[in-house]
Amino acid sequence: VYALNWVQLGLWDDFRSQKIKDSIMSRAWNYLLDVPELVKPFAESLYSVLKKHQGIYPEEDKEFNNRMVAEEHKRHEVIKAIIPLFISKQENIYLLFSYVSLIVEDDLPWLISQYEKIIDKNEKILWCKLISHFSYTFNSKYIGDLLEAKSKDLELSKALAFLDPITINSPEGRKIKAKYLKNERWHKRLKEEHIKPLLKPSPIQRVIKLLDRFEKGDKNAWWLLNREMTLEPNSTHYGDESESDIRTFPVWKKADSKMQNRLLNAAAEYIKSPPSLDTSWIGTNTFDRAYRAGYRAFVLLMNFDHNLFFLLIKQSGKSGLQFSLNFPYIQMRIMNPISL
After folding, report:
1. Is-contact 203 231, C-beta < 8 A?
2. How far apart are CA 249 and CA 232, in angstroms?
3. Which of the pair, 191 or 123, is modelled with greater confidence?
4. Highest mean predicted confidence (pLDDT) among 22-26, 290-294, 313-317
5. Strand partners for 80
6. Is 59 helix (H, G, I), strand (E, B) or coil?
7. H helices of 195-288, where?
8. pTM, whole model, 2 decimals?
9. CA-CA distance, 151 to 9, in Å (whole number)?
10. How far is it, in rounded angstroms, from Cα 291 to Cα 293?
């Protein structure tokens, strides 16, 4: 519950904190049926996440959203708890199925049954909006449920008026067409927000270019390419610079053996002959990328060639000590806009 309270505060805008947020939400989901008291704080936390137009993407559970769809009872309990939170800003109700798989088409019969139980007028409007939305793309097997519900309730009858025969060029027909086109534009805009353009040049091309520079004598190119290695093909920000193992970076994982060997050779050369290093940052609450890149070079070599690693430790002297001191005591959490 304390962890969920932290999620509700919304203090997870940086890269590392978002991963923590996703992990908390996925683990809380796992225990919703065992600990019913978690449903309300989970719903409130999810509301905070959705308000920021975010989803839940835990690294340790890639199938989380698929599991959410499958675990119907949990979803229904959370839906009942979260819908009242949208009363003050009803248009945001569509976030419930835009960023998480909390409501799906097969929930239509259940949505109708719940709607009939709701007493609060404002909350009833929200359930009506959800039923109306999913009715636009409904499976024909639910037509009976919809028509029966429509015949029993005036507000629902208005919301499902599109099921009535309508002349296209009538005032009502034009109104429904305009609403449909507006909804299509909204979905198109939402889809475009999720499609991030690919970086040009690509992360691998960026790293290769800097490797070329390094091999021609520009030693600073090593720490510059360290940053580029944190990028995904469609990244908008550099990745986690507090990571000490280059092998976890996206570019390393996609690199072929030839490129990885070039990186290993560059790491060894950087340690043997580093650029001119500024030591003024030592003892302050800051960090120097050149030193941090040196430490990563040590870690990389340690994992591939122990003998060379210990030889370079002896040869690098003072700079090697400073490289090795960089990571253990300075943990920086930073997201940097990409220089295109």
Report:
1. yes
2. 9
3. 123
4. 22-26
5. none
6. coil
7. 203-215, 221-228, 250-254, 257-272
8. 0.49
9. 43
10. 5
Which amino acid, 308?
L
Is residue 155 a contact partner of residue 130, using CB atoms and an 8 Å limit?
Answer: no
Q: Identify whether 201 is preceded by a cis peptide bond (ω within 30 of 0).
A: yes
CA angle 106, 108, 110 (to 5 degrees): 100
Count Cβ atoms within 10 A of the Cβ of residue 258 and give its class: 0-12 exposed, 13-18 middle, 19 or more buried.
exposed
Position 335 confidence tier, pLDDT thresholds 50, 70, 90: very low
Measured CA to CA, the distance from residue 282 to residue 298 in angstroms comes to 19
DSSP assignment of 145-201, as one string?
Answer: HHHHHHHH-HHHHHHTGGGS---TTSHHHHHHHHHHHHHHHHHHHHHHHH-PPPPSS
What phi and psi, each to the nearest 5 degrees, are found at residue 237? -140, 155
Give mean pLDDT, residues 88-99: 80
Place of tokens 């978690």: 38
Coil, strand or helix: which one is 337?
strand
Contact criterion met (CB below 8 Å) for 83 and 66: no
